[in-house]
Design brief:
By secondary structure, the chain is mainly α. It is 44% helix and 4% strand. Strands 1-2 form a two-stranded antiparallel sheet. Strand 1 (4-6) and strand 2 form a beta hairpin. The model has no long low-confidence stretch (mean pLDDT 79).
Length: 165
């Protein structure tokens, strides 16, 4: 249990190990009031922000409103651009002759053209899926000595083992 002390400024009972009175904020031993805001600003210095930083911080705090206003402004710009282009196209006539659609796209089917053959694919495949699952070993690759020894032992064991019936 902690012992009880008395604040010299407000005369309330507080913990004797307290550095500040929780009621009045004064030093409990001397009764001197400390300006905690200046202490906090001295220890935790506020960041100096430029105008662009304050705008970004404002937008970050109000993201929903900022996104809605930005979307509305973008919509107004697109609507204005559409209106401008529509009015311009309604009033301006072209001196060029019209281009028929048959020059742009070929809508008729031509039966004299043969279908384009499939290009030659450069891989070995003889129709069995097993072939596609095997690994391709590079030329010059060597088998590790442990694997060779295990293979030789397995071969020797199969030759010397009697066939049981």
């Amino acid at each position: 249990m902690s012992s009880q002390g008395v604040c010299a400024a407000c005369s309330r009972a507080i913990d004797s190990s307290a550095k500040l009175c929780p009621y009045c904020g004064a030093n409990p031993a001397t009764g001197e009031r400390l300006d905690t805001q200046t202490l906090l600003q001295e220890i935790f210095r506020p960041r100096e922000m430029s105008t662009s930083d304050t705008v970004v911080e404002y937008a970050r705090q109000r993201q929903g409103v900022f996104i809605a206003v930005t979307g509305f402004i973008a919509f107004l710009i697109l609507a204005g651009l559409h209106q401008f282009v529509s009015n311009r196209n309604a009033n301006v006539a072209s001196d060029l002759p019209a281009v028929p659609l048959t020059e742009l796209t070929d809508v008729t089917k031509k039966s004299d053209e043969a279908p384009v053959p499939m290009p030659k694919l450069d891989f070995q495949y003889d129709g069995t899926p097993k072939r596609m699952r095997t690994y391709v070993v590079e030329g010059g690759a060597t088998t590790p000595p442990e694997v060779i020894a295990a293979q030789q032992q397995a071969a020797a064991a199969t030759q010397t083992a009697p066939i049981a019936r």
